[in-house]
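Archive transcription. Copying these from loose printouts into the bound notebook so they stop getting lost. Printout 1 of 2:
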Amino acid sequence: MDEKERKQVISPLSTESLQQNGKTVYYIRSVTSTVFGVSAGILGLESYYGFLFYFGGTVFVSFLLFGLLARGRPGEYFTSANDVWTSNALTGLSSFVLTWTLFYGLVDA
């Protein structure tokens, strides 16, 4: 039995826990993308600066998810360690753009 099989026998991942962890990451990314959109609109960011703000914020949130939510060991909470970094990273882009343009228009008007 190799090391990976031994870990699965000692502490198996339950499907319900994996689904709940995925929902939590999705919720966090959705809320933070909306907050980033509001912030970018209030700051008056335009064009590439707004998108760079979003992607920078997404990377920051990924670091927080890795450090706080997964406690530096994402393999214990997700099927893959990459799930913390890539899972749902672009799903909040539409809500970011929506709130960005809304608040930009409200502040600029």
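Printout 2 of 2:
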Amino acid sequence: GGARTLALTVFFAAIGGTFQYGYNISIINAPTSYIQNFINDTYMERWGTGLDIPQVTLLWTFIVSAFSLGGLLGALLAGPMAVRFGRKVSLLLNNSFLLVGAVLVLTCKLAKSFEMIILARFLVGINSGVSMNIQPMYFGESAPKHLRGAVAFSSAVFTAFGIFFGQVVGLTELLGSEPLWPYLLASNALPALIQLVTLPWFPESPRYLLIDRGDKEACVQALGRLRGGKVPPLEMEEMLQEQQMSSALKSGSSAPAKTPWSLFKDPNLRLQLRTVMTASSAMMLCGNDSIYFYAYYIFLEAGIPPEKIQYITIGTGASEFTASLLSNVLIERVGRRYLLIGGYSLMVCWTIVFTVALTLQSQGVTGMPYLSMACVFAYILSFGLGPAGVTGILPAENFDQTARPAAYMVAGSLMWISLFLVGMLFPFIVNGLGNYCFLPFLVVCLVSAVVLGRTMPETKGKTLVEITAEFDRKNGRALQVEEPEEYQLGKASSLATM
């Protein structure tokens, strides 16, 4: 019963959470030309003259960039929302941004306003920024220790599934045609409605109820539902200990939440914060989203007819989805550290091969376009195998309850800023470096693998106290503990007893 409740909680939280992030990244690609025509036609009807191609491209860039800017705002809102409303209620409230955005895109043709599309994408970005931070937090706090990694990694699985599903729905035979593109962009309202109907029936994060709200009775009820009716004594003791570590005073009191600024000032959390910041920035700066963009031109050079490329592109989404499923199985066996560092190391290798293939392809060497295609799929597989999912788990495992929302705010902000920068700079990188355009991403992947290898301990199957002790050892500090006391249920145990 507990496993079923946990699985359904994960599904209904993710279907309106990180699934939406992947889905909304994907569905904007199919109607690109239709939306650009709509912009030009609307402008001509208003002012009696059309726009030049660079002007249309600039307005299209605003539509694309609005998603990243909205995501940045959502990441900043996620921390205060998670503390004030709780993890589950924040996810439910977050759907309001999507529903308003869906109404805007459905009525933009009637209103003859392309500005409504920009506003809609901004609201969708806010939704994604909130869900990308709060959902992994919710999962990490609700799952038992031995499943924490796999449950938290499911956020990446649903993101990859959203990308794949969006590519399928965006086919011209479905919603990717000229008359139906507003319905394609508004189709994200359906998962939002599913979550609004189903998620209220499932429990809130037990750790939030105990540590943030100070409600031990509600925590016991939520934990019992998630564990099949029985509250595991050791897990409850661990949460009570974390409550004690988080400066909660007595039963019924709540611990004050940290701010991002207080994280930067705390020397005891500096190494944890540096690790999370490196991983979060690298996830977007590594070029995985850019390789999706570049895939069209690679497939075109490989001799695939333009009208068939949309079907081949679905394979890129399927690759990341397959890799995320495989990594979900491996994460509790191999561990977070090896998946993350191994993923970036493989991406370094594929970037080198990819650059060589592009260079030889420009010289007319036979077979190089097919090698480039293979590198695209291998690069995406390597990303999905490690960085795509492990990155989102790190703030949940490396910070206590009071610092976790602020850590996700910092990580999420860096992710969205990095995504915005890559989206804006990549066309200039392609024009400036040509066949060597992926060398900057090689540097990012290489530096990330080295830095994370030096600073990040393995967190698989460890409590927060054990993870903190690992960081303390890396910082050269010895963790002081009290003398062992007799273990008693219902009382927070000391570190030595645990």
